UniProtKB/TrEMBL annotation:
Protein name as annotated: Pentachlorophenol monooxygenase
GO molecular function: FAD binding; oxidoreductase activity, acting on paired donors, with incorporation or reduction of molecular oxygen, NAD(P)H as one donor, and incorporation of one atom of oxygen
Native species: Streptomyces monashensis
Listed cofactors: FAD
NCBIfam families per UniProt: PRK06184.1
Pfam families recorded: FAD_binding_3
Entry annotated with the keyword Flavoprotein: yes
Gene3D superfamilies: 3.30.70.2450, 3.40.30.120, FAD/NAD(P)-binding domain (3.50.50.60)
Length: 457
């Protein structure tokens, strides 16, 4: 076995898809008997839509959800007014997706799971991992029943309470984002239109929201409760809460599908790699749900790690390439934690800051900018979409390969080449990584092959 992935959430499933299309033998291990049943992480940011486009699931994700509605504020049983949830970000040729999608997490995971199976990947349910170990030749996970399983690498995508992170002794520093208890639930509600995200605030700072979940018949209930309150996650408790905060009656909450409580916090693991074990998703960073950064940052962990594991396991790249996973993603996660905390506290607006299109790796050791006076897109930046000779760039990028823009023919073996880059890129030649970022840029294609050789690819 090449890779064991612990956790069948969005992170583990996305990584499984990326490895499967690279011919890497991977097994996803999930403690539960089935996929996660709740709506929890429902926002799919534009950058993650680009990732899903590459992984071959964007059409299904779009069909599973829909756009965010405006927020309707209520006071004393009356509508006060509506406001957009997000600042508008203009779409252009380079960024075709600029609006977040609302997709219930359980639906996102169903789509990813179906794609993983389509590619020949596997998930083993009912497998509770309690620890991990490693030696010079590989790593192993230990199960609750006393058995173990080995692979060349292990990826811990087992959530904020990661058993693997704890077994490795990796610390996770964090802070409370809000002292109040929160709860979230998927409910059926009558007497409330589905055209708005309905919000019912009180003067003491507590609030209940009821958001129609796109692609389902449910509403997601979110609540910020008084400090010291113990959330009641039963149907009766949720009926009482809705009746206390809204104009609806208890009987208007007709069903409870799923519920959970939490206290918002921001936390970052001290390390994302310990030898042959790597941490991804909530196992590596925990966000406030405000701003929709957690699931998206996690999926992009998987997208960064997938091509690097594939290069090491199938293309002969040195194991040290995996060090750049921690280098790139830990810095990115730290920035996203600051952002999500800022959104939670009302210091940052949802919009251009939260769509994640401006994230990049200019400071990475993998990034080489060799042009004397770069203009436009630089090495380390996200590679924008566009069209070259009638070919859409995102179509050219799709798949587990590198792409060279601005070099006629195939000057680098195994790399797809297009004769030019869009004008928006500026002058130069651009070598685009499998995860859609420019790894190398130069005035000509000279040096692109040497760059890949240095990576061992």
């Amino acid at each position: 076995m090449d890779v064991l992935i612990v956790g069948a959430g969005p992170t583990g499933l996305a990584l499984g898809i990326d490895l499967a299309r690279r011919g890497v033998e991977a097994l996803v291990l999930e403690r539960a008997a089935g996929l996660f049943p709740g709506s929890r992480g429902k926002g799919i940011q534009p950058r993650t839509q680009e990732v899903f486009d590459d992984l071959g699931v964007l059409a299904a994700i779009r069909a599973a959800g829909g756009p965010y509605p405006d927020r309707m504020i209520w006071k004393d049983g009356e509508r006060v007014g509506a406001e957009p949830m997000f600042d508008t970000v203009a779409a252009d040729d380079g960024a075709p997706y600029t609006e977040p999608l609302m997709v219930a997490q359980w639906r996102t995971q169903e789509v990813l799971y179906a794609r993983l199976l389509e590619l020949g990947g596997r998930v083993a349910f009912g497998c509770e991992v309690t620890g991990a170990g490693q030696d010079a030749d590989g790593a192993a996970v230990e199960f609750a029943d006393g058995t173990a399983l080995r692979a060349r690498y292990v990826v811990a995508a087992d959530g904020g309470r990661s058993a693997i992170r704890r077994a490795l002794g990796v610390g996770m520093a964090g802070e409370s984002v809000d002292p109040a208890p929160f709860m979230v639930a998927d409910v059926r509600v009558r007497g409330l239109d589905r055209g708005y995200w309905h919000t019912f605030p009180k003067d003491d700072g507590t609030v209940v929201g009821l958001c129609p979940l796109a692609g389902t018949d449910d509403f997601q209930l979110q609540a910020r409760l008084p400090e010291g309150t113990a959330p009641d996650l039963s149907l009766d408790g949720i009926r009482t809460l809705v009746a206390a905060y809204t104009h609806l009656n208890r009987a208007d909450v007709t069903a409870l599908r799923w519920a959970s409580d939490f206290r918002p916090r921001a936390a970052l693991a001290d390390r994302f790699r310990v030898g042959r074990v790597l941490l991804a998703g909530d196992a590596a960073h925990v966000h406030s749900p405000a701003g929709g950064q957690g699931l998206n940052t996690s999926v992009q962990d998987a997208y960064n790690l997938g091509w690097k594991l594939g290069a090491v396991l199938r293309a002969g790249a040195p194991d040290t390439l995996l060090d750049t996973y921690e280098e790139e993603r830990r810095a990115n996660a730290a920035a996203m934690l600051d952002l999500s905390t800022g959104v939670h506290r009302g210091e940052v607006r949802r919009g251009s800051a939260t769509v994640q299109l401006d994230l990049g790796y200019r400071e990475s050791s993998l990034t080489e900018e060799t042009r004397a006076n770069p203009a436009g897109v630089r090495a380390g930046d996200r590679a924008p979409d566009g069209t070259v000779d009638g070919v859409r760039l995102f179509d050219a990028f799709r798949g587990p390969h590198w792409t060279l823009l601005g070099a006629p023919g195939s000057p680098v073996p195994g790399v797809r080449s297009l004769p030019a880059a869009p004008e928006s890129y500026g002058p130069g030649v651009f070598l685009v990584r499998p995860d859609g970022y420019v790894g190398w840029a130069g005035d000509s294609s000279d040096g692109a092959g040497a760059y890949l050789a240095k990576l061992g690819i």
